[in-house]
Structures are given as C-alpha cells and as structure tokens.
Amino acid sequence: MRWFNSYRLHGHSLAPRLPQHSLVISMRWPGHWPLAPGTTIVVEHPTLGRLIKHVDRIDHHGRLWLYGEHPDGLSSEQMGPVSRQCVKGRVIFSVAATSSSHQLGHGA
User: Fold this and answer.
1) Distance between CA atoms of 108 and 103, rounded to whole angstroms?
2) C-alpha closest to that of 53 among 95, 97, 86, 30
3) For a disulfide at 14, which of 5, 18, 28, 46, Cβ 3.0-4.6 Å?
4) Nearest-5° angle of CA 28, CA 34, CA 39?
5) What is the rounded distance in angstroms from the CA atom of residue 16 to the CA atom of residue 71?
6) Cα–Cα distance for residue pair 76/65, rounded to 1 Å
7) What is the pTM of this model?
C-alpha cells in the first residue's frame, strides 16, 4: 500500500472551497492515529463508495460522522456513521480547480 494517493474530485460536495475537478493528495492514515472534527479524509463508505469529506464529529462509539460543504450535498445523517477502518487517508494538500484547469489547451 502506498503512503500517498492523489484524487480528482467528482461532484460538488466540497464546493465552493474545492470545486469539481480539484486535485487532492492524501496520506495513508492508520486507525490508531488521531482524527479531529474538521479534518478532511478519504473514506471508503460501505454504501456510497469512496468519498472525500470532512469529519463532523466522533461519537462515543468512535464512529465518524461526515459532512461536505455544499448545501445540496448529503447530510451527516443521510450518510450515517462510518468506522475508523473505513478511513483510507487524510487529505494533506489540495489544489482548487478553476473553470478551465481540467482541460489542456493545444500544445500542452
């Protein structure tokens, strides 16, 4: 398993800060390392697949409740809690896409 991975965002759940097509770099985050509310993580959700979300809260069972930034996105309650074992990495770097940054021009 690699320590670092890169992802291109699909969807608008982290917009406006990270619009669709933004690039994020994550670092593998072992289950015993601490996470705090507000941390942006890559998670393999049991029913929704791979997501990049913020940690909303950690309940008394140690489960993570997640959220996005866009008002039209799924709420924490709609996603439900996920276990720490679902965390694939912590986002450590991001580059916000502009309206034309995902398209290369001629000669690029």
Assistant:
1) 10
2) 86
3) 18
4) 75
5) 10
6) 6
7) 0.85
